Each structure stands twice: as C-alpha cells, then as structure tokens.
Request: fold
Amino acid sequence: MADETRRPDRKAYWRATIRLTISLLVIWFAVSYGAGILLRGFLDQFMLGGAPLGFWFAQQGAIYVFVLLIFIYCLAMRRIAKKYGVEG
Amino acid sequence: MDQTFWTYFFVAATFGLYIGIAIWARAGSTNDFYVAGHGVHPTVNGMATAADWMSAASFLSMAGLIAFLGYGGSVYLMGWTGGYVLLALLLAPFLREFGKFTVPDFVGDRYYSTTARVIAVICALFVSFTYIAGQMKGVGVAFAGFLGVPFELGIVIGMVIVFFYAVLGGMKGITYTQVAQYCVMIFAYTVPAIFMSLIITGNPIPQLGFIGEAQGEGISMLEKLNTVVTDLGFIEYTQTNKSMADVFCITAALMFGTAGLPHVIIRFFTVKSADAARISAGWALVFIAILYTTAPAVGAFARINFVDTVNESTYISDEENYAERAAEIEADGGKPVPAWYKDWEATGLLEFEDRNNDGVMQYRGPNAPDGVENEVSPDNDIFVLANPQIADLPGWVIGLVVAGGLAAALSTAAGLLMVISSAVSHDLCRRTLFKGMTDKDELRVARLAAASAVVAAGLLGVFSNNLGFVAQVVAFAFGLAAASLFPVIFLGIFWKRMNKEGAIAAMSTGLITTFGYIYWFKFVDPDPSNWLFGVSPEGIGFVFMWLALIVGVVTALVTKAPPDEIQELVEDIRVPGTRAAHDGGDTEMAPAE
Reply:
C-alpha cells in the first residue's frame, strides 16, 4: 500500500468481489437445488455410469462442485486483489 | 477376546495421543486460548475444521440414515457440505478481517450494542449446548456398546479427556488434537468402505463402486438395489416420499445452519489473514468431502448387504450353540442368521420379532407385494458399526472404528466447548459485565468456563439419554443457527445500512419463531398435516431465516442509520488490509500478524 503509483481502488475491488460471489452462488444453487432437487426428475432419465444423473448430483456431484467453487473463489479473489492494488 | 483387546488398544492409544498433544500445545494467553494465536496454517486449520464439523452423527449415523432414506438422505449430504460454500464466500474471510475472537464479538461491535451482543451470546450458547449434549451421549453409547463400560462412566471418561486438552490447551490444543482426530476418523471410515466396495462392486474406490456394476450380475449396483428394496415393499432407493418443497427446505436449513454455527465460524479466526480463511474453507471441504462422498456408497452397500444376509435367514436364539446350529441350517440348504447379527443383537440396535412363528427373519417394507409383515427393525447406527464384520475384516478394524467414532464425538465436543467458554469469559464477562478485566483474569475465567461447560455437557448427555430426545433437538441447533445468527452476520457485512435495532429484531424473530415451531411440532403436536407450508421442523429454520431477514431490514429502514464509524468499519472488513491501516478495533486485541 506504500506504493504511491498504484492506489488501491476499493470501490472497484468490492464491485468485482460481489460480481464474482453472485456468479459462484448461481453455480452453487444450480448443482444442488437445481440438478439435485428441482430438476432431478428430468435429469434422472440420463445415466452417469450406473446412477441416475439427478440422484448422482444430489449424493456426489454437488459436493465435488462445491469443493471446486471454493478454490476457484480463492484464486479469483487473489487476481481481483492484484488487479485493484488491494493487499500490499 | 481379540476384538476387545484391539478396541481397548486403539481407544487408549488415541486418548494418550490427544493428551500428549494437549501438554505440548499449552495456551499462554487469551490470544492462544481463543484463536491459537491467529497462527494456524490454512491446510492444518482445514483438517481441524473437518474434525470439528464431523460429529458422532456424521460418523456413525449418516450412512445408516442414507441407507434407509435412499435419495431422501441427500439432504444431509448437500446440506452439510454446501454450507461451506456460503461460509467461504459470505462470512469467513470478512469475519477474519474483522479480527476478533468470537461470533458475539462481531455482533456486539458491528451493531454497537451490548443488547445485541448478549442476544448473540444466548443464541451461541443455545446452539452449542443442544449440539454438545448429543456428542457426549455418543461417547457414552460408544463406551457402553463396545467396552461394556456403564453409559454414565463412559461419559465421565470422555469428559475427563476433553477437559484435559480443552481447558489446558484452549484453541491451540484443540486444533492439533483435531488434526490427529481427523486422521483417526477418516482412516477408520474409509478402510471398511474400500473392502465393502470390493466385495459388492469389485471396484476398490467406493465413489466409483457407487456408480459401478454389481459384481457378476450385469446390472448396476443402484439398479440392483432398487429392485431388491421394491421387491420387499420399500420405495425405490433413488426416490423419496418427502415432498420436493420439504427436501428443498431441509437442505437449505442445514446449509445456512452450517454457515451460522459458531463453532465452525470461530475456526476461521485461527488463521492469519482473509486469504488464508478462504483457502482454509476450501481445504476443510476437501477433507469433509472425502467422508461425505464415501458415505452414500457405504449406505447403499450396507443396505444391499443387510437384505442379502439377514432377510429370509433362519434365526438362532441365544440358548442354542451358534456354530452347531448354523452348520445344521446350512446342511438343510437354509441360510443361518449371520454371526455379526448375533454379536450386535445385545446392544439393542437390532430387533427381531417372529410374527409368523416360522423361525425365519422376514425383512419387509410397508407395501410388501407378498403381504408378509416386517419382523426385523435395525437402528440407523448399526450399519457403520457392523460394516467391518459384515465385510469380514479383522478385529483390529473394529477397534479402529470405535476409536474413530470417539474421535468424531470428542473433536466436535471440544470445538463447542470453546464457543461456550469464550462466549461466557470474553463476551459476557470482559466485554459486558466486568470491563476492567486483565488478560490474565480473562484467561482464568475462560478456563473455568470451559471446565464448567464440560461438566454441564456431561450432565446433559446423561440426562438426555433418559429422555432420548437428542436426535430431535439437533434440529434446534441448525434451525436456530440459520434463523438467528446467519442473517445478522450476513447483513452486517453486505449491508452498511443495517443497524442495531434491525439486528436485535432479526435475531429475536429468528430465535423465537424457530424455537417455538420446533418445540411445538416435536413435543406438543407432532402431526405433520399441521406443518406450515408442509415444511418439517428440520427445514423450518430456512423459512424463518427469510422472515428474520425481512424483519431486520424493515426495522433498520424505519430507524436511524448506524454511526459513520460503523459504516467505515464495514467498508474496512470488506477490503483486506485496510482495517489495520485505519487502526481498527482494540490494538491489544488486533490480529497478531
């Protein structure tokens, strides 16, 4: 932050954070409530190996995506912090 | 006896390990005691969080619940993992940036109000005590079931162990013991699962076996399971008889409840920055997912196994010699009741009533096509406990599972104790009642509070066994966390305009409505047809969370905006690094970077 040439743009940083958070939460909702619950009946006509797809999302797939989402969030937040000069 | 020897061996060895870690990691200051000096590595914290989070219920009961509920069990799988996404994205990094010790600390400072702090203390204590009673009960059951120790004595032994490392080591001791407990727990869970998967599907990885083929049958494992259970009169394994709305609400209540549970949140105060808190949440979910993606496989395998080995087998009573009688039955071309069934019958987790007096055990669902009445009632917990024997694993694996179950219960109990002790010593005593306390005094009070909480939790555990209501009150913990704590923390970060009046209104609304609804439908009128919108007490926290949010926002809008310095505080915690620059908070309690 001592770097005078790159004053942190806190407003832009926060806007970018909110955008990222919302898009990740959309995926979060889609894989669990969407694929695992609301659209399960439709997805169950497809099979993943020996499991109906909707059922698989509810018991396996959603959890794998959750893990990915958090790590994507970490990496994207680091990029956003760099871009807007936040965090020395 | 071989198996008893191994059980004693593993339980004694792991307990010794926990005590050793506690002595090594003694806490010297309140900073050490509450947040392990803010210096825990993110991956280590992730592992500790996983152990903290996965309780006796996750370890022992969940796979069994899924085995019985089939698709309906998904609410636990998605609910208890999806909450970490909310935690990582919406709460953990900001609360870490805030840099204090406890959840009521955040509520009290953000809402510049002692009343709000005290209400948050009440919510935190309520949630934690209901949860901890279940853990202590789990410890008692494990001791009673496996080691023949009386239930109450089992709880006392558990209390002494937790007392030792929680009171001595505080968060620092707890963190490193939880890492050890995670390793014990995950090893004990996956080893039997791998063997079961090999036996049933031929694939050593349970997650792949789950979607694979049933060994030598040419159809998928789940297809076989669907046929097996529908033939017995149950609904298909991949279906549920819960309504979609109820599945939705229960999943959501568990997710938002997870994100609002104080003992999970405080784990993210132990790392050194907001960035570390995010990574740490990711690691926590990785470690949790290892168990949570194995559990549905264990559940499905266990259900197949149970039907295969128990249904239509000839019962052998305790008066008969098992080996002789089993050989006789086999010689006649029959199927004797499996040996593991006889081993577990004494625990009361399995019951057989020969309704048609044919000496054969018929296991049936409510709509059996052949019209035969069900005669066998297994308890949910039996599946994980008996798996090693069902899969014919050696005695030491069973000892390991017992140690794993105890690790799961003790690690969660310790995390909850920290919440109780810090809520009392820090928020109630130092920040509310006796503001002039020194750090040393506070540490002494914190230890005393932790010690009394251990005793109270033990008594609750003993007491709840007589009432048998622990399974029901767990719904309280999640519902209350979702409806009372989540909305105020969330709004406190994402809405600057949220003020003291709104926070008090939101917390009280969430607390009172959820408590009232669950109490009413669990203890007074258990008739599901009277449920609000058809939502069960387990899922109602989600509905009342929205009510609390709306009440909070409306109240805040009609009252005065929060003071400027509070609005600045909110801006500061949103952007890492600015809070320290603005000299935020008490310097003496600022994060030790």
Q: What stands out?
A: Chain A touches chain B through 44 residues (CB under 8 Å). Residues 10-82 of chain A form one domain. Chain A is about 75% helix and 5% strand. Residues 53-83 of chain A form the longest helix (31 residues).
